[in-house]
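Lab notebook, design round three. We kept the backbone fixed and only want residue identities now. Task for the bench partner: fill in a sequence for the structure below.
Input C-alpha coordinates:
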Protein backbone atom coordinates (compact mmCIF):
# COMPACT_ATOMS: atom_id res chain seq x y z
CA UNK A 1 0.00 0.00 0.00
CA UNK A 2 1.38 3.38 -1.03
CA UNK A 3 0.98 6.73 0.70
CA UNK A 4 -0.89 8.12 -2.32
CA UNK A 5 -3.44 5.28 -2.11
CA UNK A 6 -4.22 6.16 1.51
CA UNK A 7 -4.48 9.83 0.57
CA UNK A 8 -6.88 8.99 -2.28
CA UNK A 9 -9.33 7.44 0.19
CA UNK A 10 -8.95 10.31 2.67
CA UNK A 11 -9.66 12.74 -0.18
CA UNK A 12 -12.91 10.92 -0.93
CA UNK A 13 -13.98 11.41 2.68
CA UNK A 14 -12.78 14.99 3.14
CA UNK A 15 -11.53 16.59 -0.11
CA UNK A 16 -8.75 19.12 0.55
CA UNK A 17 -10.39 21.30 -2.13
CA UNK A 18 -12.85 22.39 0.57
CA UNK A 19 -10.25 23.26 3.21
CA UNK A 20 -10.09 26.92 4.20
CA UNK A 21 -7.65 29.15 2.30
CA UNK A 22 -5.59 29.91 5.41
CA UNK A 23 -5.04 26.23 6.15
CA UNK A 24 -2.15 23.90 5.30
CA UNK A 25 -3.66 20.50 4.60
CA UNK A 26 -2.41 17.49 2.68
CA UNK A 27 0.91 15.65 2.67
CA UNK A 28 3.39 17.69 4.74
CA UNK A 29 6.37 15.32 4.79
CA UNK A 30 7.26 12.19 2.87
CA UNK A 31 6.77 10.91 -0.65
CA UNK A 32 3.39 9.94 -2.16
CA UNK A 33 5.06 6.89 -3.70
CA UNK A 34 6.42 5.46 -0.45
CA UNK A 35 5.28 2.05 0.76
CA UNK A 36 3.25 2.28 3.98
CA UNK A 37 4.04 -0.10 6.85
CA UNK A 38 1.31 1.22 9.13
CA UNK A 39 -0.83 4.29 9.86
CA UNK A 40 -0.93 6.16 13.16
CA UNK A 41 -3.93 8.47 13.63
CA UNK A 42 -3.60 11.46 15.95
CA UNK A 43 -5.07 14.87 16.67
CA UNK A 44 -1.67 16.59 16.79
CA UNK A 45 1.76 15.57 15.50
CA UNK A 46 4.39 16.08 18.20
CA UNK A 47 7.80 14.55 18.83
CA UNK A 48 6.20 12.06 21.20
CA UNK A 49 3.72 11.07 18.49
CA UNK A 50 6.56 10.48 16.03
CA UNK A 51 8.23 8.33 18.72
CA UNK A 52 5.00 6.35 19.04
CA UNK A 53 4.88 5.89 15.27
CA UNK A 54 8.45 4.57 15.27
CA UNK A 55 7.66 2.20 18.15
CA UNK A 56 4.55 0.84 16.42
CA UNK A 57 6.17 0.57 12.96
CA UNK A 58 3.89 3.19 11.43
CA UNK A 59 5.57 5.31 8.76
CA UNK A 60 2.47 7.40 7.96
CA UNK A 61 0.91 9.74 10.50
CA UNK A 62 -2.60 10.95 9.69
CA UNK A 63 -3.19 14.03 11.84
CA UNK A 64 -6.05 16.42 12.27
CA UNK A 65 -3.96 19.55 12.92
CA UNK A 66 -1.08 20.41 10.55
CA UNK A 67 2.27 20.58 12.37
CA UNK A 68 3.44 23.00 9.65
CA UNK A 69 0.98 25.87 9.62
CA UNK A 70 2.99 28.90 8.57
CA UNK A 71 6.17 28.97 6.51
CA UNK A 72 9.38 27.49 7.89
CA UNK A 73 12.54 29.44 7.04
CA UNK A 74 14.94 27.01 8.67
CA UNK A 75 15.10 23.56 10.26
CA UNK A 76 17.53 23.74 13.14
CA UNK A 77 15.46 22.08 15.85
CA UNK A 78 15.02 25.33 17.76
CA UNK A 79 11.34 24.71 18.55
CA UNK A 80 8.85 21.85 18.82
CA UNK A 81 7.69 22.21 15.21
CA UNK A 82 11.19 22.00 13.74
CA UNK A 83 12.16 19.12 16.05
CA UNK A 84 9.06 17.15 15.07
CA UNK A 85 9.63 17.67 11.35
CA UNK A 86 13.32 16.74 11.62
CA UNK A 87 12.52 13.55 13.51
CA UNK A 88 9.83 12.57 11.02
CA UNK A 89 12.14 13.14 8.02
CA UNK A 90 15.07 11.36 9.67
CA UNK A 91 12.88 8.29 10.26
CA UNK A 92 11.16 8.37 6.84
CA UNK A 93 7.76 9.08 8.34
CA UNK A 94 5.15 10.79 6.18
CA UNK A 95 2.71 13.24 7.79
CA UNK A 96 -0.71 13.99 6.32
CA UNK A 97 -2.95 16.70 7.84
CA UNK A 98 -6.70 16.90 7.16
CA UNK A 99 -7.82 19.80 9.42
CA UNK A 100 -10.43 22.15 7.86
CA UNK A 101 -11.13 19.71 5.03
CA UNK A 102 -12.66 17.53 7.75
CA UNK A 103 -14.21 20.58 9.44
CA UNK A 104 -16.14 21.26 6.23
CA UNK A 105 -17.22 17.65 5.72
CA UNK A 106 -20.83 16.79 6.55
CA UNK A 107 -19.66 13.60 8.29
CA UNK A 108 -16.68 15.29 9.90
CA UNK A 109 -15.75 17.07 13.11
CA UNK A 110 -19.09 18.70 13.86
CA UNK A 111 -21.14 15.65 13.01
CA UNK A 112 -19.11 13.78 15.64
CA UNK A 113 -19.96 16.44 18.22
CA UNK A 114 -23.64 16.13 17.34
CA UNK A 115 -23.36 12.35 17.59
CA UNK A 116 -21.90 12.55 21.10
CA UNK A 117 -24.71 14.89 22.18
CA UNK A 118 -27.43 12.81 20.54
CA UNK A 119 -28.61 15.60 18.24
CA UNK A 120 -31.01 14.89 15.38
CA UNK A 121 -32.07 16.88 12.28
CA UNK A 122 -28.47 17.93 11.66
CA UNK A 123 -27.73 20.73 9.21
CA UNK A 124 -24.63 22.71 8.17
CA UNK A 125 -24.39 26.01 10.04
CA UNK A 126 -22.35 27.92 7.43
CA UNK A 127 -22.57 26.32 3.97
CA UNK A 128 -19.42 26.89 1.91
CA UNK A 129 -20.15 28.92 -1.27
CA UNK A 130 -18.98 28.03 -4.75
CA UNK A 131 -18.83 24.27 -4.22
CA UNK A 132 -21.50 23.28 -6.75
CA UNK A 133 -20.80 23.44 -10.48
CA UNK A 134 -22.92 22.75 -13.54
CA UNK A 135 -21.92 21.13 -16.82
CA UNK A 136 -23.97 21.64 -19.98
CA UNK A 137 -22.99 19.64 -23.05
CA UNK A 138 -24.50 18.41 -26.33
CA UNK A 139 -24.41 14.90 -27.79
CA UNK A 140 -26.07 13.08 -30.69
CA UNK A 141 -29.33 11.46 -29.57
CA UNK A 142 -28.00 7.95 -30.19
CA UNK A 143 -24.95 8.63 -27.96
CA UNK A 144 -26.63 10.72 -25.25
CA UNK A 145 -27.34 7.82 -22.87
CA UNK A 146 -23.73 6.61 -23.03
CA UNK A 147 -22.36 10.10 -22.36
CA UNK A 148 -24.83 10.67 -19.53
CA UNK A 149 -23.99 7.37 -17.82
CA UNK A 150 -20.27 8.12 -18.05
CA UNK A 151 -20.83 11.47 -16.34
CA UNK A 152 -22.87 9.77 -13.60
CA UNK A 153 -20.12 7.20 -13.08
CA UNK A 154 -17.59 10.03 -12.61
CA UNK A 155 -19.71 11.58 -9.86
CA UNK A 156 -21.93 14.05 -11.69
CA UNK A 157 -25.66 14.30 -11.08
CA UNK A 158 -25.60 13.78 -7.32
CA UNK A 159 -27.87 16.12 -5.34
CA UNK A 160 -28.25 15.42 -1.61
CA UNK A 161 -29.78 11.96 -1.23
CA UNK A 162 -30.30 11.54 -5.00
CA UNK A 163 -28.02 10.52 -7.85
CA UNK A 164 -28.32 10.17 -11.65
CA UNK A 165 -29.89 13.65 -11.72
CA UNK A 166 -29.82 15.44 -15.07
CA UNK A 167 -31.89 17.70 -17.33
CA UNK A 168 -32.19 16.83 -21.00
CA UNK A 169 -33.53 18.85 -23.93
CA UNK A 170 -33.87 17.63 -27.52
CA UNK A 171 -32.80 19.97 -30.32
CA UNK A 172 -30.87 20.36 -33.53
CA UNK A 173 -27.17 21.12 -33.61
CA UNK A 174 -25.15 22.32 -36.60
CA UNK A 175 -21.47 22.37 -37.47
CA UNK A 176 -19.09 22.56 -40.42
CA UNK A 177 -15.57 21.24 -40.29
CA UNK A 178 -12.65 22.83 -42.12
CA UNK A 179 -10.05 20.99 -44.21
CA UNK A 180 -8.11 20.03 -41.07
CA UNK A 181 -11.14 18.49 -39.40
CA UNK A 182 -11.99 14.80 -39.12
CA UNK A 183 -15.74 14.72 -38.36
CA UNK A 184 -17.28 11.52 -37.00
CA UNK A 185 -20.63 12.56 -38.46
CA UNK A 186 -21.03 14.54 -41.71
CA UNK A 187 -18.36 15.67 -44.16
CA UNK A 188 -15.66 18.32 -43.89
CA UNK A 189 -16.56 21.53 -45.63
CA UNK A 190 -20.31 20.85 -45.45
CA UNK A 191 -22.73 22.23 -42.85
CA UNK A 192 -24.27 19.30 -41.01
CA UNK A 193 -27.41 19.27 -38.89
CA UNK A 194 -27.70 16.61 -36.19
CA UNK A 195 -30.49 15.73 -33.80
CA UNK A 196 -28.84 16.20 -30.41
CA UNK A 197 -29.60 16.16 -26.70
CA UNK A 198 -28.55 18.96 -24.41
CA UNK A 199 -27.43 17.34 -21.15
CA UNK A 200 -27.18 19.34 -17.94
CA UNK A 201 -25.71 17.93 -14.72
CA UNK A 202 -24.43 19.43 -11.48
CA UNK A 203 -21.34 18.17 -9.67
CA UNK A 204 -19.10 18.90 -6.69
CA UNK A 205 -16.26 21.30 -7.45
CA UNK A 206 -13.47 18.88 -6.57
CA UNK A 207 -14.69 16.40 -9.21
CA UNK A 208 -14.36 18.76 -12.20
CA UNK A 209 -11.25 17.12 -13.68
CA UNK A 210 -12.80 13.64 -13.47
CA UNK A 211 -16.09 14.86 -14.93
CA UNK A 212 -14.44 16.51 -17.94
CA UNK A 213 -12.21 13.49 -18.56
CA UNK A 214 -15.30 11.28 -18.59
CA UNK A 215 -16.99 13.65 -21.04
CA UNK A 216 -14.06 13.73 -23.47
CA UNK A 217 -13.43 9.97 -23.24
CA UNK A 218 -17.03 9.03 -23.99
CA UNK A 219 -18.22 11.73 -26.40
CA UNK A 220 -18.17 10.75 -30.11
CA UNK A 221 -17.32 14.18 -31.52
CA UNK A 222 -13.81 15.32 -32.41
CA UNK A 223 -14.56 18.69 -30.81
CA UNK A 224 -16.84 18.60 -27.74
CA UNK A 225 -19.05 21.63 -27.05
CA UNK A 226 -19.57 22.21 -23.33
CA UNK A 227 -19.73 24.88 -20.66
CA UNK A 228 -19.02 24.78 -16.94
CA UNK A 229 -20.46 27.35 -14.53
CA UNK A 230 -20.25 27.81 -10.77
CA UNK A 231 -23.62 27.95 -9.04
CA UNK A 232 -24.52 30.17 -6.11
CA UNK A 233 -26.78 27.53 -4.56
CA UNK A 234 -25.73 26.84 -0.96
CA UNK A 235 -24.34 23.35 -0.50
CA UNK A 236 -26.04 21.72 2.47
CA UNK A 237 -23.36 19.03 2.72
CA UNK A 238 -20.18 21.13 2.83
CA UNK A 239 -19.45 23.86 5.34
CA UNK A 240 -18.47 24.92 8.84
CA UNK A 241 -20.39 24.11 11.99
CA UNK A 242 -23.65 22.26 12.43
CA UNK A 243 -27.01 22.56 14.15
CA UNK A 244 -29.08 19.80 15.67
CA UNK A 245 -32.06 19.16 17.90
CA UNK A 246 -32.18 17.49 21.31
CA UNK A 247 -34.77 14.73 21.49
CA UNK A 248 -36.04 16.34 24.70
CA UNK A 249 -35.36 19.89 25.81
CA UNK A 250 -33.14 20.35 28.86
CA UNK A 251 -32.63 22.97 31.53
CA UNK A 252 -29.50 25.04 30.85
CA UNK A 253 -27.37 23.94 33.81
CA UNK A 254 -28.32 20.29 33.34
CA UNK A 255 -27.33 20.48 29.68
CA UNK A 256 -24.01 22.17 30.49
CA UNK A 257 -23.29 19.43 33.04
CA UNK A 258 -23.97 16.83 30.37
CA UNK A 259 -21.72 18.64 27.88
CA UNK A 260 -18.90 18.89 30.43
CA UNK A 261 -19.14 15.18 31.18
CA UNK A 262 -19.40 14.20 27.51
CA UNK A 263 -16.34 16.18 26.43
CA UNK A 264 -14.34 15.65 29.62
CA UNK A 265 -13.79 19.41 29.86
CA UNK A 266 -11.81 20.72 32.83
CA UNK A 267 -14.30 23.57 32.89
CA UNK A 268 -16.83 25.23 30.59
CA UNK A 269 -16.68 28.98 30.14
CA UNK A 270 -20.10 30.31 29.20
CA UNK A 271 -22.10 33.51 28.76
CA UNK A 272 -25.01 34.47 30.98
CA UNK A 273 -27.73 31.85 31.29
CA UNK A 274 -31.10 32.98 29.99
CA UNK A 275 -33.46 30.86 32.05
CA UNK A 276 -34.80 29.15 28.92
CA UNK A 277 -34.72 25.43 28.05
CA UNK A 278 -32.18 24.13 25.54
CA UNK A 279 -33.65 22.47 22.47
CA UNK A 280 -31.72 23.60 19.36
CA UNK A 281 -27.93 23.35 19.58
CA UNK A 282 -25.26 24.83 17.31
CA UNK A 283 -21.73 23.39 17.38
CA UNK A 284 -18.39 24.21 15.78
CA UNK A 285 -15.27 22.30 16.75
CA UNK A 286 -12.16 24.37 17.38
CA UNK A 287 -12.06 28.16 17.24
CA UNK A 288 -15.62 29.22 16.43
CA UNK A 289 -16.09 32.84 17.48
CA UNK A 290 -16.57 33.84 13.83
CA UNK A 291 -19.81 31.83 13.71
CA UNK A 292 -21.62 33.40 16.69
CA UNK A 293 -23.91 35.51 14.52
CA UNK A 294 -24.75 32.52 12.31
CA UNK A 295 -25.64 30.49 15.40
CA UNK A 296 -27.97 33.27 16.54
CA UNK A 297 -29.51 33.54 13.07
CA UNK A 298 -30.09 29.78 13.05
CA UNK A 299 -32.21 30.11 16.19
CA UNK A 300 -29.89 28.05 18.39
CA UNK A 301 -30.44 28.11 22.15
CA UNK A 302 -26.75 27.40 22.77
CA UNK A 303 -23.56 27.50 20.71
CA UNK A 304 -20.84 25.02 21.69
CA UNK A 305 -17.36 25.85 20.44
CA UNK A 306 -13.88 26.80 21.73
CA UNK A 307 -11.29 29.58 22.05
CA UNK A 308 -13.79 32.36 22.82
CA UNK A 309 -12.18 35.61 23.95
CA UNK A 310 -13.45 37.99 26.63
CA UNK A 311 -15.35 40.27 24.25
CA UNK A 312 -16.79 37.34 22.28
CA UNK A 313 -19.11 36.54 25.18
CA UNK A 314 -20.80 39.93 24.81
CA UNK A 315 -21.91 38.87 21.32
CA UNK A 316 -24.42 36.48 22.85
CA UNK A 317 -26.66 39.56 23.22
CA UNK A 318 -28.99 37.64 25.56
CA UNK A 319 -30.19 35.66 22.54
CA UNK A 320 -28.37 32.38 23.18
CA UNK A 321 -25.80 30.83 25.51
CA UNK A 322 -22.18 30.64 24.38
CA UNK A 323 -20.25 27.67 25.75
CA UNK A 324 -16.47 27.23 25.38
CA UNK A 325 -15.65 23.57 26.05
CA UNK A 326 -11.97 23.75 25.06
CA UNK A 327 -10.20 23.36 21.72
CA UNK A 328 -8.86 19.85 22.22
CA UNK A 329 -12.07 18.71 23.86
CA UNK A 330 -14.23 19.82 20.93
CA UNK A 331 -12.06 18.03 18.35
CA UNK A 332 -10.97 14.93 20.25
CA UNK A 333 -13.35 12.57 18.45
CA UNK A 334 -11.72 13.15 15.07
CA UNK A 335 -9.09 10.51 15.91
CA UNK A 336 -11.74 7.83 16.33
CA UNK A 337 -13.60 9.04 13.23
CA UNK A 338 -10.52 8.81 11.01
CA UNK A 339 -9.37 5.51 12.50
CA UNK A 340 -12.78 3.91 11.94
CA UNK A 341 -12.93 5.18 8.37
CA UNK A 342 -9.42 3.96 7.47
CA UNK A 343 -9.97 0.54 9.07
CA UNK A 344 -13.13 0.15 7.03
CA UNK A 345 -11.33 1.06 3.81
CA UNK A 346 -8.20 -0.97 4.59
CA UNK A 347 -9.51 -3.88 6.65
CA UNK A 348 -6.30 -5.94 6.43
CA UNK A 349 -3.92 -3.08 7.09
CA UNK A 350 -2.43 -1.74 10.33
CA UNK A 351 -4.33 1.41 11.36
CA UNK A 352 -3.47 2.46 14.91
CA UNK A 353 -5.24 5.01 17.11
CA UNK A 354 -2.58 7.06 18.89
CA UNK A 355 -2.67 6.92 22.68
CA UNK A 356 -0.29 9.87 23.10
CA UNK A 357 -1.88 12.75 25.05
CA UNK A 358 -1.45 15.92 22.99
CA UNK A 359 -3.69 18.42 24.82
CA UNK A 360 -1.35 21.28 25.85
CA UNK A 361 -3.88 22.77 28.30
CA UNK A 362 -4.11 21.52 31.88
CA UNK A 363 -6.66 22.44 34.52
CA UNK A 364 -5.89 23.12 38.18
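Proposed sequence:
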Amino acid sequence: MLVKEIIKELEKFAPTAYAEDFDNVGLLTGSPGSEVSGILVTLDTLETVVDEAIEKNCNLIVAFHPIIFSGLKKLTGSNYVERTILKAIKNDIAIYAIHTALDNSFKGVNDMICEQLGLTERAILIPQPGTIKKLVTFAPKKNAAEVREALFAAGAGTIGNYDHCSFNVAGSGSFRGNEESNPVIGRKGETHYEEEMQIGVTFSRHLEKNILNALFDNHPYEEVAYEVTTLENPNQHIGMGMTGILQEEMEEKAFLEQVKKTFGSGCIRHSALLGKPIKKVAVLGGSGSFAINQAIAAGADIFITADLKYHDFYKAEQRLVLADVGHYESEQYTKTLLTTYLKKKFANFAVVLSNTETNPIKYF
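Keep this in mind before ordering anything: The longest strand covers residues 192-204.
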